[in-house]
């Protein structure tokens, strides 16, 4: 397995592959069996060949990128599978219809890479979903409009009807996520305005319940084995029948790394028991499952689901040891439950923290309660699926259990979470040292004080860099055709706007801005500025207010008839965040820098929202930058911004902003344009020409992604 991992990493151009091969060689030397070195090298070659074949596979959709197309295929809730050409695409926005045959039109675009720190790397995720025997997703169909729809039939259609019949939309969505791994419907469900069901599960440490994994396989096979045992079946039937049913089960549900790993491991264990060979070695079974997965789907190695699944199961191998440290008078099920939950959380900590930017603090009690409900809900839900439309009486009980599970998630989802930034090489090395110390302590090789000292030292070493060298920068977030700028000083953090998505249900604040802030290590905002009542500037601010502590909100004009601004002000009211109406001359200072309001004057308001934008100037040690919202050229001339080193171009490079008079006054050496795909012609050629005439370099987020600018 170490050889295969090393080969895949080398095919991806990552030097860590050499380290993985050395680990394999080290294990060979540890066991003094040099002949096994050939297997390490063979694994490396196989891993490299498998990944290389996938990475060099041509994309059948490339000729149609940028075109308006109409396609037809099988929609599974995640991908639309086409027959001609053989390809898979995602749809944005996702259809409200469930899985089935779709005829849909839209613009076909190539997948994008990561555009913001901590953001979603669509291109890498697409590559990871492909395998040697399956088609790699090749593009995204945006502005998708469903022309024809035919509901899913066959066994899956029957099973889905059984899961949802007689249930509310929210209950049915949860059942489809738990039993089939289809999270399309549950992603749209909310407990209340701004409180998404999936977010509540994540904050409570219960997100894994909606991802098919070993828990589902263990509960279902355990229930079947218990039934066969009660019927007096011989061991060959008791364990052999579940093995035979695992294959069809994998075809029924939505395939993923975690459920494939669970089926392979479960099948190996059950087969050994059916043949009377006893329980196989846990590490051997884990390695076998990893080999099977990675040789067929080599880029699963980069998939978060694969990483979480295998890290968790590796940690669980120590459950008995940890349970043995707990008081013997406690029931064994409780000791094992506590040990398993703690180990799973510890084992997946760097991936959870680095990927999602937060670590739940209530995962232990939440999981203990939720697992009891899942032990009943998973088998009963599966039985309901088998019954199809006849499951109405059974779903009365399933609805109650689903509500109980959501109550646990909602209750614990209100608890605080530990925010986290990106995990770098130093953080991974510190985590590895802490894990090694803990493992040696469990084995009795080191004493508890030494292990505890190692943990504290690792914690201190990972905390010090950020405190010794606090950030001083301006970050222009890539939020598409919108605006969001972060100003970071050691003791002042200001977010100017939070993006938005006009005519779309995509929450830029929740899914782009907040993850970026967490990845950057921003745990709170001192000031959130809502420059003016435009969707593409402030729609995301409501989600930012709900998910991060904010000191105060700055606004210019307090409009009472704008729904977007009203939503932001309501979110501030819910979180008891004071709202301040700023005027020209208002200022805040910190760390040798000052942030000054240049506009609005506040004497009179224009009927045009853009004219009322809040404009700001940042000064630090002789360096000056200005952020002008969507101000038009006539207002820009009246600001008196003075000479600038950096200008944030107003209105995404509109021809009616960043006028010649402003540029003559400010002569900025550099200008940043926050812009995305648009039909407005932004940035306009006239603006780019004016910038070139004053020798100001233009930096565009649509070309560069998120732009980070140091502040002296």
TrEMBL record:
It comes from the Bacteria. The chain crosses the membrane at residues 7-30, 36-55, 217-237, 249-275, 282-300, 373-397, 417-442, 448-466. Residues 481-677 form the Metallo-beta-lactamase domain. SMART domains: Lactamase_B. Keywords: Cell membrane, Membrane, Transmembrane, Transmembrane helix. It is a multi-pass membrane protein. The keyword Membrane applies. Pfam families: Competence, Lactamase_B. It is found in: Cell membrane. PANTHER family: DNA INTERNALIZATION/COMPETENCE PROTEIN COMEC/REC2 (PTHR30619), RECOMBINATION PROTEIN 2 (PTHR30619:SF1). This is DNA internalization-related competence protein ComEC/Rec2. The lineage of its organism: Bacteria, Thermotogati, Deinococcota, Deinococci, Deinococcales.
């Amino acid at each position: 397995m170490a050889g295969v991992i090393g080969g895949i990493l080398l095919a991806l151009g990552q030097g860590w592959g050499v380290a993985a091969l050395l680990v394999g060689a080290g294990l060979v030397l540890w066991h003094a069996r040099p002949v096994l070195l050939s297997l390490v090298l063979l694994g490396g070659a196989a891993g490299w060949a498998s990944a290389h074949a996938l990475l060099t596979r041509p994309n059948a959709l490339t000729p149609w990128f940028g075109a308006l197309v109409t396609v037809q295929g099988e929609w599974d809730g995640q991908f639309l599978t086409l027959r001609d050409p053989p390809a898979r695409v995602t749809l944005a926005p996702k259809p409200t219809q469930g899985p089935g045959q779709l005829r849909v039109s839209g613009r076909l675009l190539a997948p994008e890479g990561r555009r913001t720190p901590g953001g979603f790397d669509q291109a890498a995720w697409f590559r990871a979903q492909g395998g040697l025997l399956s088609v790699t997703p090749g593009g995204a169909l945006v502005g998708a409009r469903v022309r024809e729809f035919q509901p899913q039939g066959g066994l899956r259609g029957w099973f889905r009807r059984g899961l949802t019949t007689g249930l509310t939309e929210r209950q049915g969505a949860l059942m489809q996520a738990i039993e089939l791994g289809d999270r399309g419907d549950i992603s749209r469900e909310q407990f209340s305005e701004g409180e998404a069901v999936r977010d509540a599960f994540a904050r409570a440490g219960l997100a894994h319940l909606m991802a098919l994994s070993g828990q589902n396989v263990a509960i279902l096979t355990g229930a079947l084995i218990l039934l066969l045992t009660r019927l007096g079946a011989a061991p060959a039937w008791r364990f052999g029948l579940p093995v035979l049913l695992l294959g069809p089960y994998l075809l029924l549900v939505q395939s993923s790394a975690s459920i494939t790993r669970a089926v392979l491991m479960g099948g190996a264990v059950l087969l050994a028991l059916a043949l009377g060979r006893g329980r196989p070695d846990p590490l051997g079974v884990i390695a076998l499952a990893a080999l099977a997965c990675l040789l067929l789907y080599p880029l699963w190695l980069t998939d978060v689901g694969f990483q979480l699944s295998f890290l968790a199961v590796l940690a669980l191998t120590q459950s008995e040891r940890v349970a043995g440290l707990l008081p013997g008078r406690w029931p064994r099920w409780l000791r094992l439950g506590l040990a398993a939950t703690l180990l799973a959380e510890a084992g997946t900590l760097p991936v959870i923290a680095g990927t999602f930017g937060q670590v739940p603090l209530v995962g232990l009690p939440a999981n203990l309660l939720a697992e009891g409900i899942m032990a009943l809900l998973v088998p009963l839900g599966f039985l309901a699926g088998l019954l199809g439309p006849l499951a109405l009486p059974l779903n009365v009980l399933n609805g109650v259990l689903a509500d109980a599970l959501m109550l646990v998630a909602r209750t614990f989802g209100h608890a605080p979470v530990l925010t986290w930034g990106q995990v770098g090489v130093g953080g991974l090395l510190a985590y590895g040292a802490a894990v090694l110390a803990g493992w040696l302590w469990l084995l009795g090789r080191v004493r508890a004080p030494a292990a505890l000292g190692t943990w504290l030292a690792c914690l201190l070493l990972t905390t010090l860099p950020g405190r010794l060298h606090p950030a001083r920068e301006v970050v222009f977030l890539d939020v598409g055709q919108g605006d969001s700028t972060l100003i970071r000083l050691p003791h002042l953090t200001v977010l100017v706007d939070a993006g938005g998505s006009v005519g779309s249900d995509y929450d830029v604040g929740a899914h782009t801005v907040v993850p970026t802030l967490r990845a950057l290590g921003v745990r709170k905002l001192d000031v959130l500025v809502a420059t003016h009542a435009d969707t593409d500037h402030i729609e995301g601010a409501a989600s930012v207010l709900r998910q991060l502590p904010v000191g105060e909100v700055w606004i210019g004009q307090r409009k009472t008839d704008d729904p977007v601004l009203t939503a932001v002000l309501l979110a501030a009211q819910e979180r008891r965040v004071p709202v301040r109406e700023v005027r020209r001359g208002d200022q805040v200072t910190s760390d040798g820098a000052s942030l000054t309001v240049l506009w609005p004057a506040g004497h009179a308001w224009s009927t045009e929202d853009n004219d009322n934008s809040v404009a700001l100037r940042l000064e630090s040690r002789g360096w000056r930058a200005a952020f002008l919202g969507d101000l038009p050229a006539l207002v820009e001339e009246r600001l008196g911004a003075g000479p600038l080193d950096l200008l944030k171009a107003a209105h995404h490079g509109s021809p009616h902003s960043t006028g010649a008079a402003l540029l003559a006054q400010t002569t900025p050496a550099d200008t940043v344009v926050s812009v995305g795909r648009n039909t407005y012609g932004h940035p306009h050629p006239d603006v780019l020409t004016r910038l070139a005439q004053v020798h100001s370099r233009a930096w565009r987020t649509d070309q560069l992604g998120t732009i980070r600018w140091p502040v002296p």
